[in-house]
């Protein structure tokens, strides 16, 4: 008997869409290849849609509605499936991050996901819902993703994680005093780990700061490099060494000019005491 991947419709809108497609196909007694033939695509494409590995398009959803005779049901549902909380390019990055031997990250404005407490992550997601940027399902997806990413890096052997945070990350209040205090405590705990390094890039660095946007450089087990950077609307995973190496060089320059870890810890401790 062919193994069928268990679907979890609660995980994301994309997974819920895939479960509906599978259910409609099963009701008709079709295999994935038989459905694919009716749609004019490959069986692997149908499989990727059903298991949530690939987002559908409006055109493909309309084909599904026509083949299944479901009016515009799937086309309407596909809208929420496409409105994922993840930026374009981020899913590919996550797969690599979860297996990386070394993670070097720089963040601007907010604590990066790998270092966030659940309460801090929830406060950010709730604010995005209030601004109308995402819906409640997407907010839950963002919070769950923080825990998933952190769990993926809590393995043996542990990856080396080097974090440089813009000073605004630790001075910007998120979620109220209690949430922020717990988040700062989490940073101090992170700094104590044997496989981590924490630095703050102070405002006083001025134009010495080489990055204006968040950036992450991954070193994989085979020592190959890749870099991920994002704007407000999309992310880009770069695999070509000719482009990644200059980013890594700039990251090293950033570390040289940032506060060393002892000074970083001292700043965070002062912030927790409410002193400038």
From TrEMBL:
InterPro entries documented for this protein: Cro/C1-type_HTH (IPR001387), DUF5753 (IPR043917), Lambda_DNA-bd_dom_sf (IPR010982)
CDD domains: HTH_XRE (cd00093)
Pfam families xref list: DUF5753, HTH_31
Keywords annotated in UniProt: DNA-binding
PROSITE patterns: HTH_CROC1 (PS50943)
Keyword DNA-binding carried by entry: yes
GO molecular function list: DNA binding
Keyword DNA-binding tagged: yes
Protein name (Swiss-Prot/TrEMBL): Putative DNA-binding protein
């Amino acid at each position: 008997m062919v193994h069928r991947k268990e679907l979890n419709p609660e995980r994301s809108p994309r997974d819920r869409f895939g479960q509906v497609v599978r259910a409609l196909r099963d009701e008709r007694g079709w295999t994935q290849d038989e459905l694919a033939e009716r749609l004019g695509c490959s069986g692997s494409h149908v499989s990727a849609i059903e298991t949530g590995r690939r987002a559908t398009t409006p055109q493909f959803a309309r084909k599904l509605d026509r083949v299944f005779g479901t009016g515009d049901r799937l086309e309407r549902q596909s809208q929420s499936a496409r409105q994922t909380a993840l930026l374009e390019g981020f899913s590919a990055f996550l797969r690599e991050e979860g297996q990386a031997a070394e993670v070097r990250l720089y963040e601007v404005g907010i604590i990066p996901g790998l270092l966030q407490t659940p309460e801090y992550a929830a406060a950010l997601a709730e604010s995005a819902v209030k601004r109308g940027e995402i819906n409640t399902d997407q907010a839950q997806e963002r919070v769950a993703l923080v825990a998933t990413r952190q769990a993926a890096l809590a393995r043996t052997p542990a990856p080396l994680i080097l974090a440089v945070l813009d000073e605004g990350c630790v001075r910007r209040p998120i979620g109220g005093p209690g949430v922020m205090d717990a988040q700062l405590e989490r940073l101090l705990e992170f700094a104590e780990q044997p496989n981590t390094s924490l630095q703050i890039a102070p405002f006083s660095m001025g134009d010495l700061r080489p990055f204006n946007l968040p950036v992450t450089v991954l070193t994989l087990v085979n020592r190959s490099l890749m870099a991920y950077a994002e704007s407000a609307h999309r992310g880009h995973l770069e695999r070509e060494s000719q482009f990644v190496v200059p980013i890594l060089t700039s990251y090293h320059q950033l570390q040289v000019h940032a506060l060393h870890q002892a000074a970083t810890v001292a700043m965070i401790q002062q912030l927790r005491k409410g002193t400038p």
